[in-house]
Amino acid sequence: MTDYYVTSAEDVHTSTGNAGTIGDPMGLFEAFGAVAAGDNIIVMADGTYSLTTEVLLSTTGTKALPITVFGANSSGTIDGTKPVISGTGMPTSNTIFHHNQVAQFYHYRY
Questions:
Q1: What are the E-state strand segments in 1-99?
Q2: CA–CA separation, 110 vs 108, rounded Å?
Q3: Least confident range of 14-23, 28-37, 66-75
């Protein structure tokens, strides 16, 4: 199981090549592309994540090993902080996270 830290300082729409650690956080889209069953995505509330396209969730967790998305403060501590993920820049859809038919067992905790 791996924790992937995400910061709004990274471009959320492109892969940045960052490791996803607290010291080298990655972008939102990159994190959702990297996860596997049992992994966590920790979204730090260090700004607004302004999306212009949906995040397609295609990786599948399992009932025993879900993929969990946590909100965290700007230092990466999971403390109930709620990051702002805005889809106001998307042209036609109000859906931010789109699960395809195989993506299952995502838990959002913020």
A1: 3-6, 40-44, 48-50, 55-57, 67-72, 84-86, 97-99
A2: 6
A3: 14-23
Backbone angles phi, psi at 34, to 5 degrees: -95, -20
How does the average pLDDT of the chain come out, rounded? 83
Is the pLDDT higher at 51 or at 100?
51
Distance CA 1, CA 74 (A): 22
Measured distance between the N- and C-terminal CA atoms of the chain, rounded to whole angstroms = 20
Length of the chain: 110
Triad 93, 99, 101: Cα angle to 5°: 125
- pTM comes to 0.85
Q: Please answer whether residues 71 and 45 qualify as being in contact, where contact means their C-beta atoms are separated by less than 8 angstroms.
A: yes
The two beta strands, 67-72 and 55-57, are: unpaired
pLDDT of 17 higher than 70: yes
Partners of 57 in beta bridges: 99
Q: Two tokens at 14?
A: 């492109």
